[in-house]
Design a protein that fits this description.
With 409 residues, the chain is mainly alpha-helical. 86% of the residues lie in helices and 0% in strands.
Amino acid sequence: MKKNFLFTAVSIGSRLLTGLVIFVLLARLWGPVDFGMFSFAFSASALLTLIVDFGFSGYILRELGAEPDSAVRLIKDAFWAKLSLLLILLVVASASGYLLGTSVFPLQLALPLLLAAIALSFADFFAAPLRALGRYDAETGIVTSTNALQFVIAGSVAWSGGSPVAVAWAFFASRMFYLALAIHVLYRVIPSLSLGKSDATAPHLTFKRVWSYGIDGALTTAWGQLDVIVVRALYGTQAVGIYAAGQKIIQGVSALAPVVGNVMIPKLARQAKSGDSRLQRTALLTAGAMLGIGSLFAAPMLAMPEQVSSFLFGEKFQGLGQLMPFFALILALKYLAAGSGIVITSAGLQAKRVISQIAAMAVFAALITLIFYNELEIKYFLLAYALSVFSMAALYARQWLAFRQQFNR
């Protein structure tokens, strides 16, 4: 376990490069308008890619953690099910681009970001089995090298005066390298792996098993991307640039959450399946560690909001400091929810996790409606977001308490 967390610590640094540092650099170089346009296209592409994501990485991580001997069959069947969704994604993306128009979702920016998001989705899919099988060393090597490459390529393009479109193509190039490397390493770890066409009924059966992961994955990603879309619609391009700068801090630090989950979900899944009495202690340690990480990063944003804003983004993003305490609150609550989510996923309560996510999203939608009709300031949007995340964490905790009572009988 200590060795796995050591590899995780290395992954953390590399994920921060692409999850936070690169976006801070882009924001400082471009200013709110260009950064807002890029962030909107980036978030829209991520939301569209939910169609092909469909929770397959989480499904592989959990199922292989519980039944490692089924690796070849699970990976092949899941791959073909995932691939079958690609055509649907392209149709929906084309329709979305047409409806939004080129002024909101320009093709020259949307295309490379969408291709980059698709490449990342498949790369994460092929990296997930490495974590489930305990090969954290291999996964760390892939993630570290590819994230470093993306930072160097995209950062160099932006630093040399590259436009958002040029940086978007740099993202695509680095993520294609990630995809190729992940496939190569996975074949080395599982020499018997074959991605040849599966049985005709296999994708259908896989969808029946993975649907809860797909909905949960879609809702989880929506929490990290949908807010930018809503802010753009409510407050305009300038506001979304300011907002996206604070949101990227949350997204960057939130990159640590899946890393912890990647280590703990297989262990918790095995304990839950075998009836291990240590499950409750492991669950509490996992949730506590997640809340601690979130609080640690939120503290400077709460204590020194203006200083953090000025240090990271400079004078172009005046006004962000006033919103920083709200972002700190959201960050801490997101880690509280993520810790609880890891635990109930490992316990096999994925369907109930989906219900909790839908309920929290309904709370968010209701609050956004109030904000829209009353024309409230953006700080009220952030408070609504924080309240919605808290409701999700509370529902997760309730599901875990119910499971624990049955587990202890």
